[in-house]
Design a protein that fits this description.
The complex is a heterodimer of chains A (115) and B (115). Chain A is mainly β. Chain A has no helices and twelve strands. The radius of gyration of chain A is 14 Å and the shape is globular. The chains are: A mainly beta (115), B mainly beta (115).
Chain lengths: 115, 115
């Protein structure tokens, strides 16, 4: 079975500051990795994904994430946040042997950007 | 495209009543997923369909929950009888042929409150 841990339930940050949202996972098989974002009163949207290749993945809205296999981590970063980045961010994994059919989500990290 | 459409947006009901949640996936998508989001447990996969056929319902909490997909453009999630612990946001998501959970398109969710 797979599990995803997002240690920070909430991350407050000032506008234009850098931010890192942490994600660690546990799995007995190789996985694909994802970050989704949920804006207030909306469904989730895909930010970025790691399937293979370069461990640094760039996504929408200036976000990027780095896959570290030895540390089983997939932390999300942005060098300078905007007020509009205020949202909940979910890390998720999908085992390679399920053909993308099942996604396991973490509990989410709420990013609060203030002026 | 209008995206994944869920109805109702909000549902308030009394314990013991039957509740039906509805979902219209994006046209042409062949996977449909039902997720439940709570503060305590985060996002949980309840069931998913491929080409209108239920593939995995292992996440359905108990026999009170049932889901159907009578055609490619409509799915329902039914709870009968409902209980207060069923209160949550229920999301429907769909994905393009051959992609499974690689990129999910989520609806805006149904906020269910069982009193």
């Amino acid at each position: 079975a797979q599990s995803v841990t997002q240690l920070d339930s909430q991350v407050p940050v000032f506008e234009e500051a850098p931010v890192e949202l942490r994600c660690n996972y546990s799995s007995s098989v190789s996985v694909y990795l994802f970050w989704y974002v949920q804006y207030p009163n909306q469904g989730l949207q895909l930010l970025l994904k790691y399937l293979s290749g370069s461990t640094l993945v760039k996504g929408i809205n200036g976000f990027e994430a780095e896959f570290n296999k030895s540390q089983t981590s997939f932390h999300l970063r942005k060098p300078s946040v905007h007020i509009s980045d205020t949202a909940e961010y979910f890390c998720a994994v999908s085992p390679l042997n399920t053909g993308f059919q099942k996604l396991v989500f973490g509990t989410g990290t709420r990013l609060l950007v203030s002026p | 495209d209008a995206g994944v459409i869920q109805s109702p947006r909000h549902e308030v009901t009394e314990m013991g009543q039957e509740v039906t949640l509805r979902c219209k996936p994006i046209s042409g998508h062949d996977y449909l997923f039902w997720y439940r989001q709570t503060m305590m447990r985060g996002l949980e996969l309840l069931i998913y369909f491929n080409n209108n056929v239920p593939i995995d319902d292992s996440g359905m909490p108990e026999d009170r929950f049932s889901a159907k997909m009578p055609n490619a453009s409509f799915s329902t999630l039914k709870i009968q009888p409902s209980e207060p612990r069923d209160s949550a946001v229920y999301f429907c998501a769909s994905s393009q042929p051959g992609t499974g959970s690689e990129k999910l398109f989520f609806g805006s969710g149904t906020q269910l409150s069982v009193l």
